[in-house]
Design brief:
By secondary structure, the protein is α/β, with parallel strands linked by helices. Helix 4 links the parallel strand 3 and strand 4. Helix 2 crosses helix 3. The longest helix is centred in the N-terminal third of the chain and has 28 residues. It is globular, with a radius of gyration of 17 Å. The protein starts with a helix and ends with a helix. The mean pLDDT is 88.
Length: 237
């Protein structure tokens, strides 16, 4: 019963924070991109702290030393909404590769669009790949990072979906290294789950995977192998 009360309280406070900052981000864009991004980053920090203080949801990270000082392509496991917040809070300025429908979501979608996310139609095949490469190359040249969930959607703990080639394609075509990230957030904050479970999320950040002179398919296979091998060690059976 206590977890129910905490989850309800988190939902109420989190919704207020999301609404307020969701309005502030577009307004901050009128002043400049940096201010807008810092405002969005504040949202991520607030949600992480609220999850810890209200729901008892903590996290432990290994591999922070692998985060470079230069732009890279981030490819992470996708199990819940938590890792989106964590990446926004933890990494330097980054844009997201998102499905186009997300930009229609009030507040969050508007903020994602304003922060120069790469919104694609995943059903468009090669056209989506061209968008990722063209817009991703532009963002990287501006010193921004590009974050993508290679499975394309959130997957339950202990399962996996086919890894899409988009992130590896962009990285290989631009000679940009990939930062792989594994975590088990779905065990505590499930897909579309209202109730949160107290505990400590394990996050593992891997060494950079180099892409220069390599085929995207080869790079993708290495990324998938690293992430899924780590998932075996941090997923509770």
């Amino acid at each position: 019963m206590f977890n129910v009360i905490r989850s309800v309280f988190f939902f109420i406070i989190g919704s207020i924070v999301t609404t307020v900052i969701g309005v502030l981000v577009p307004l901050a864009l009128l002043i400049g991109y940096n201010l807008a991004y810092d405002t969005a980053k504040l949202w991520g920090t607030c949600i992480l702290h609220l999850a810890r203080l209200i729901c008892g949801l903590k996290y432990h990270v290994t591999g922070m030393e692998h985060i470079p000082t230069h732009p890279c392509v981030v490819m992470a496991k996708h199990q819940s909404a938590w890792e989106t917040v964590f990446l926004l809070h933890t990494l330097p300025r980054a844009v997201w590769v998102i499905k186009r429908e997300l930009v229609l979501v009030p507040f969050i979608g508007w903020a994602l669009l304003g922060l120069r996310s790469i919104a694609i139609d995943r059903k468009s095949g090669r056209s989506a790949m061209s968008q990722i490469e063209e817009q991703g190359r532009d963002r990287l040249s501006r010193g921004m990072w590009v974050s993508i969930f290679p499975e394309g959607t959130r997957v339950p703990p202990g399962t996996r979906k086919r890894y899409g080639i988009g992130g590896a394609w962009l990285a290989a075509k631009t000679d940009t290294p990939i930062l792989p990230i594994a975590h088990n957030a779905g065990e505590y904050w499930g897909k579309n789950a209202f109730f949160k479970t107290p505990g400590t999320i394990q996050v593992r950040i891997g060494p950079l995977i180099q892409t220069t002179g390599r085929e995207p398919s080869e790079v993708l296979a290495e990324v998938e192998q690293w992430i899924e091998n780590e998932m075996v060690h941090i997923t509770h059976q």
